[in-house]
Design goal:
By secondary structure, the protein is an alpha/beta fold. The protein is 43% helix and 10% strand. The chain has a single domain (5-343), classed as TIM Barrel (Alpha-Beta Barrel). Strands 1, 2, 3, 4, 5 and 6 form a 6-stranded parallel β-sheet that branches. α5 (100-108) links the parallel β3 and β4 (112-119).
Length: 345
């Protein structure tokens, strides 16, 4: 009996490590724990992740603008503390990973591998020494900005805003990038503006990732990357994670779907190579009482893949488009893992 496309996708998720390189899980976990809930990841998220065949997550430390600057550090530490508590409560199901080998070990023991990332260095304010503290706590990815300005750089906005001239890396930003490389942390340029990204490329040597960005040639948001930027990241051995936020998938509201998301992947594969694409869905519709419409945005927004339970739909589309099993293994996790193997030792 012939294997169905659904069975094929399920088999691939069992054969390979499926990894989402960007997920705002911890702000929600921290919030629910403050309301008294326990084992939040195990009871509310793990069943969904397992249903979608997800084995590993990079969880961002993201701080809402209303808490900045005064509460940024506390909120970030609260999220780390929440994760530590969750792992203590579910030690047989969750594992904080700081190296490639630990990811492989977690997968071998059927645990969800969780890695930590700063989504914007706002919690550091302008204190370089705090980067070492977050490193000791397990953070291995440095997303320099969210879509706003901080002490390191300017972010790229979701849409056009009325503002003055943007800048690149500040003096603090340059020092931060050098320190991150020294610590073997992975630099993430999603959300960074064009000038800042150019500065990062000029001042670094190793692979750089864009954990959740698409192709600007297809969808014109400044949050997406130009052809030149995509090629430069690929030349460094970097990987770009496909972002499922509809405003980054298409300029047309009606075209925000999995097929159009896959158009970005095809485009980047043809432009830069199969080894430089991955998954960074940035699923946000699970967040409590946070509408998917950034401030000032003029249209309703949504995730084209609304849950990790639906991730096999992404894989099924890869199969339909003729990607081989080996290529799909690279796309759904292998490419990002190859970068982690080089840097996270």
């Amino acid at each position: 009996m012939a294997e169905s496309i659904q069975e094929h996708a399920k088999r691939l998720h069992e054969q390979y490590i499926a990894l989402d390189a960007h997920f705002d899980l911890l702000m929600e976990v921290d919030l629910r724990r403050k309301f008294g809930y326990r084992k939040v990841i195990e009871t509310e998220f793990l069943p969904i992740l397992r249903a979608g065949g997800v084995s590993a997550l990079v969880c961002s430390l993201f701080i809402e603008s209303e808490y900045l600057p005064e509460m940024g550090l506390k909120m970030a530490l609260d999220q780390v503390s929440a994760l530590y508590s969750e792992i203590e409560e579910s030690p047989d199901k969750l594992q904080l990973c700081t190296t490639y080998d630990e990811i492989i070990d977690a997968h071998a023991h059927h645990k969800l591998a969780i890695l930590l990332s700063l989504e914007g260095v706002d919690p550091l304010t302008n204190d370089l020494g705090l980067l070492q503290i977050f490193y000791q706590l397990g953070v291995r990815f440095v997303g320099l900005t969210w879509s706003r300005r901080n002490f390191a750089a300017d972010g790229s906005h979701f849409h056009a805003v009325d503002e003055g001239h943007q800048g690149g890396l500040t003096e603090f930003g340059v020092q931060l990038v050098k320190e991150a490389e020294k610590l073997n942390m992975i630099i993430d340029v999603s959300h960074l503006n064009d000038v800042g990204l150019a500065d990062v490329l000029e001042r670094t040597n190793g692979p750089i990732i864009a954990s959740h960005s698409n192709a600007r040639s297809i969808a014109s948001s400044m949050r997406n990357l130009t052809d030149e930027q995509l090629c430069e990241l690929a030349a460094r051995g970097g990987v770009i994670g496909m972002n499922g936020f509809n405003a980054f998938v298409s300029d047309s509201y009606e075209d925000g779907d999995v097929s159009h998301l896959m158009d970005h992947l095809d485009y980047i594969v043809n432009l830069a190579g199969i080894e430089h694409v991955g998954i960074g869905l940035d699923i946000c519709n699970f967040l409590s009482e946070i509408p998917l419409k950034p401030a000032g945005h003029t249209r309703d927004s949504y995730d084209v893949i609304s849950s990790h339970r639906e991730l096999p739909l992404f894989t099924e589309e890869l199969i339909r488009r003729g990607y081989s099993d080996e290529e799909i293994g690279l796309i759904i996790g292998g490419n990002f893992l190859n970068v982690y193997k080089k840097i996270l030792k």
